[in-house]
Amino acid sequence: GSTLEIRDLQVAVEDKEILRGVNLTVRAGETHAIMGPNGSGKSTLAYAIAGHPKYTVTGGQVLLDGADLLDMSVDERARAGLFLAMQYPVEVPGVSVSNFLRSAVTSVRGEAPKLREFAKDLKAGMDALSIDAAFAQRNLNEGFSGGEKKRHEILQLELLKPKIAVLDETDSGLDVDALRVVSEGINRFRSSGETGVLLITHYTRILRYVKPDFVHVFAGGRIVEQGGPELADKLEAEGYESYTKATA
Ligand code: ADP
Ligand code: MG
Ligand code: MG
User: Fold this and answer.
1) Tens digit of pLDDT for each residue in 5-22?
2) Where is the ABC transporter domain (predicted)?
3) 168 CA closest ligand 1 atom index
4) N or C: which end of the chain has fewer CB within 10 A?
5) pTM for the whole structure
6) Which ligand is nearest to the Cα of residue 11, counting in written order?
7) Ligand 1 neighbourhood includes 18 CB (under 6 angstroms)
8) Cα 182 vs. chain centroid, distance in angstroms?
């Protein structure tokens, strides 16, 4: 199985230091939750791992099976087995969901999937996520609701079969039914035991459906506490106040 190793990662945005030395190892078969208050740098961590140009790495390493992701282009990171949900956040006129997904699979595998095989996998993935068939022909991200964006994210996961998935705020904007469908998708993805998941969230509610093996509390750009799933229950009961006071 694969291992994602984040070592003393420091990241700045527009000359402002946001991440102040993050250390975290995610192994295949493990689900890690990163939880923390708004503005603590959770999304900055996800963007930096994904290679977003606005986020400047000022120190540290991010290794996937020993290879430094930070030396790779965004495409190379995906080919190495990292799932980058926010690689294509923009609306792309004239590119359908189906075309986008097929070219994403082609890019990651290094060869185009057979049309019939792809169509079958796409239909199975959409059925599993209760996505209407017409969705495949819509323009990428154009007018997507919050729920459609999240379902599309999990659909990519099912088709691309990455080694490590970093999911940022996958639960935000979902009603209870959509949350359940999306959570089931994540659970299917990790059920092989061969993939690692880093689930970033402000709220504890998705963790009722997707049980993490480890919970990390993020505050002030670093991990300030770690524990098992019981830590999420503590956060649910007590909130983040004790952590934000300590780092303010
Ligand atoms: P979280 O996801 O935990 O809410 P973020 O990583 O989004 O936190 O933000 C952490 C800090 O970095 C905040 O102070 C935020 O204002 C700043 N920040 C994040 N992204 C940007 C950006 N693209 N431009 C300017 N500041 C940013
Ligand atoms: Mg520093
Ligand atoms: Mg965020």
Assistant:
1) 999 999 999 999 999 999
2) 4-245
3) 2
4) C
5) 0.93
6) 2
7) yes
8) 13
Higher pLDDT, 92 or 191: 191
CA of 166 to the centre of ligand 2 (A): 23
Q: Whose CA is nearest to atom 13 of ligand 1?
A: 39
Q: What is the pLDDT of residues 152-184, one digit of tens each?
A: 999 999 999 999 999 998 777 788 888 998 899
Domains assigned to the chain: 3-88+162-247 (3.40.50.300)
Record the tokens describing residue 101, joined without a space.
Answer: 């997904």
User: How far lies 235's CA from each of 47, 168, 173, 218, in Å?
Assistant: 24, 18, 20, 12
Question: Does the beta carbon of 203 sit less than 6 angstroms from any atom of ligand 1?
Answer: no
Phi, psi of 31 (to 5 degrees): -120, 120
Q: Please tell me the distance from the alpha carbon of residue 181 to that of residue 186, in angstroms, as a whole number.
A: 9
In angstroms, the CA 53 to CA 33 distance is 25
